Amino acid sequence: MEVYLDNAATTAVLPEIAAAMADIMIRRCGNPSGIYKRSREAAGIVLEARTQVADLLGASPREICFTGGGSEGDNMLLRGAAHCYRHKGRHIITTQIEHHAVLNTCKALEKEGFDVTYLPVPADGRLDPAAVEQAVRKDTILISVMYANNETGVLQPIRAVGDMARARGILFHTDAVQAAGHVPIDVEADHIDLLTLTAHKFHGPKGCGAVYIRRGTAMEPLVYGGPQERGWRAGTENVPGIYGLGMAAAHARQGMDTVAGRVRSLRDRLIQRVLTEIPDTELNGSRTERLPNNANFLIRGVSGEEMVLLLDFADIAASSGSACASGSLDPSHVLLAMGRSREEAAGCLRLTLSEFTTGAEIDYTVDKLKEVVERLRAAQRDVR
Ligand SMILES: *Cc1c(COP(=O)(O)O)cnc(C)c1O
């Protein structure tokens, strides 16, 4: 059995979407800027996808700009907003648990003279909205809080932060890359001004994403050139990718409630079995305020890297932290921010499900994980 439980890192493209994308690449290859039939057809594909993405967020199609993925979107929105609103102030508030696409963009903005506050989070990984309010200064121009964390899946108090930001006239950005397509998002109710998403985290293709820019918000492009995307992002549109993003958004919106319910109950079975059948384990992050597909465990006395390697021998794909941090031996900045020690953070295992995960796969994974943990703990005892 081959089990893929790293859907927070990336997901499989839906077969019908991949097939239609291939057809667009091979036969319907028009550049949307032309005036002949094939170009008009390509422009129509882009227009429909823009509506599908807008519908996923409760936005208007004119507020959607296609990008080359989540990292690009975060860079564009944070840099663009900071530069456009620098006359009002130079202070930005974000959290210590953001994805590196946000954290490292903020670091770059600090070098340009912006002042960034990185808020800590409590042990359950959920930001206290009152802490955001306390950090606000007269010169605060932008608040960026992720919708759901990519390592723990913990949902952040977006509506509370959005309400506060709106009341004070501060722009509010959320990196919704993990949440989009998985939980309902409403940019109006949540008072979100700027939002980032990417297709490959909800069964669309890699290298294609979108940002939401509330009407009336000034935004500077990251990529200069032609007039595509209303001047927000130059370059010939990635028509097959945009098609794939739009179809993935429509698919997610249509099936959201049933899929989330089914995935959540499988995930709960996984959590239940791991916590009861493997001694000295804990769940990282809030038990209730988390994405339906995420389980992140602290398994004491074993290394996350070794667990991932041994699970791989059993054809199970898992993660010991964020994909971006793996390869380096640095412990997860998210788990450290939640108060875990370096040793604890190195013993974590993230299992993330998709709508294609089955009960048999979950049971196989728990059985194998039990063996792996027993083996690693026994080896530890022998060393001592
Ligand atoms: C995956 C991810 C990103 C980066 O998206 P890419 O499309 O891979 O560039 C950004 N933020 C979060 C929270 C993510 O999970």
List the helices and strands and how they pair.
Blueprint: E1 3-4, H1 15-26, H2 37-57, E2 64-67, H3 70-84, E3 91-95, H4 100-111, E4 115-119, H5 129-135, E5 140-144, H6 158-168, E6 171-175, E7 194-198, E8 209-213, H7 239-277, E9 281-283, E10 294-299, H8 304-313, E11 316-317, H9 333-337, H10 342-345, E12 348-352, H11 359-383
Parallel strand pairs: 1-11, 3-4, 3-5, 5-6, 6-7
Antiparallel strand pairs: 2-8, 7-8, 9-10, 10-12
Helix pairs in contact: 1-7, 2-7, 3-4, 7-11, 8-11
The structure holds pyridoxal-5'-phosphate.
Residues 69-71, 74, 99, 101, 146, 150, 175, 177-178, 198, 200-201, 209 line the site of pyridoxal-5'-phosphate.
Description of the structure:
- The protein is an alpha/beta fold and 384 residues long.
- 42% of the residues lie in helices and 14% in strands.
- It contains eleven helices and twelve strands.
- The strands form three sheets. Strands 2-8-7-6-5-3-4 form a seven-stranded mixed β-sheet, with helices on both faces. It has a three-stranded antiparallel β-sheet with strand order 9-10-12.
- The protein is globular, with a radius of gyration of 21 Å.
- The two termini are 35 Å apart.
- The model has no long low-confidence stretch (mean pLDDT 96).
- It binds pyridoxal-5'-phosphate.
- The site of pyridoxal-5'-phosphate has 15 residues, from α3.
